[in-house]
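Supplementary Text 2. Reproducibility record for the structural model of the 455-residue chain.

All settings were left at their defaults, and a single model was retained for analysis rather than an ensemble. We include the record here because the model underlies the residue-level annotations in Supplementary Table 4.
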Amino acid sequence: MGAGPAGMSAATELARNGIYSTVIDEAPKAGGVIYRGPWRKTPDMPHLDEKLKASMDKLQQEYQRYSSFINLQTQTRVLGPLGNNNLLITHDQQLTNIEYDQLILATGCQERSIPFKGWQLPGVMLLGAIQLQLKSGLVRPGNKVVIVGSGPLLVLVACQLHKAGCQVEAIYEATKFSAIAKETLAMLNRPQQVLDGLSMMWYLKQQKIPLHYGWGVVKAEGVNQLNEVMVAPYDESWLPDKSKAVTHTVDTLGVGYGFAARSQLAQLLELDVEYDHMSGTIPKVDKWQRSSMSGVLCAGDSVKVAGADAAITEGMIAAKAVACELGEVDHATAEQCIIALHRTLSRLYRFRKAFDNTSHRQLGLVSLPDDETVICRCEQVKKKTIDEAISQGCRDIVTLKMRTRVTMGDCQGKTCAHYCYDRMKKEGFSKEVGLIRPRFPLDPIPFSALMENEA
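Retained model, structure tokens:
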């Protein structure tokens, strides 16, 4: 499940061991958001660096090399489990099911939404959406841009936007520079990545694009379209000091406060899961990427948000485990290989931990929305409704859901759940908060698909 770095890595590793696989992805092309590339052919992509383009080409070449072993089914959605070793899927508005002997979940991650006043205005976008427009749609998302959030993606997207012709007014990184400097040693686990980051920051300096540390978004304003963005310095808990706020007149605001695992299918399969402050709800796996359910393995950002290289390595480990289970590789050989891969993975995890430490989301962010700000877009639940429910005694996420209808819409909490978890934590209910359980089907089923099946 998933044709991103982890899924394609697993499929190619299975092919190397002579194992046929089916890879399912909802996008029209393999690679995930990071390596998928443009939807249409283009002779030139000057806004993307050469390394990224080389990685995109490598993934496609690997797939072509082993395509006789890989049945890639794009634009296909999995709606959930259907009995034992069976999944219900939809493609081209038709329902069908697919059986499996071994299942690798590589469903990736989704962006973490941070509500604030004006966050629903056209022109306010998450950084992943901006990247999707730039890399796949070949569309410039706006003209005049401010970027806010935390993490290395801010600088990368700023460079890509500027090279695409946008005027990047400024970048506001919520973490203070002193906190980032403390993680220098850990970041040296990947010296080339550090050099690449410094190179991008030098590019921004040359283009006179300011990068402010310890600042973040306060609110966005406009009539039918983003017009102004207010930012302010954050304190240690990321609470903005509005007395020092400044305002930018822009048409685009890029927001990036991290990612959360897409683990809804893992939960529907009733795998053992846990909640992680940075990665969200994640399935528990062992050293071989095996979940609590026999025959189901998990890899990539759906297990731990740690970047593409870690996802590729985890995909290889999962594939080795499957090859061993199917008798294509003996246990000793597979174990030796997995131990070697874990040495690489440990280095990648240490590097990622440095960014997790610096970008550790602080609870001052839950102060950003005002009473009238919509938190749950599907059910139009406002912040004041959540306040009222908590004041009436809601202490866990399920009770909050039943009392207010948050997370009950079509997206099943992909957008609003992050705020609700953080809000409960801020109120001091971390121990009793519980988890939101997704429901079947994961995506709405079109009536046309039901009519087709009836016929």
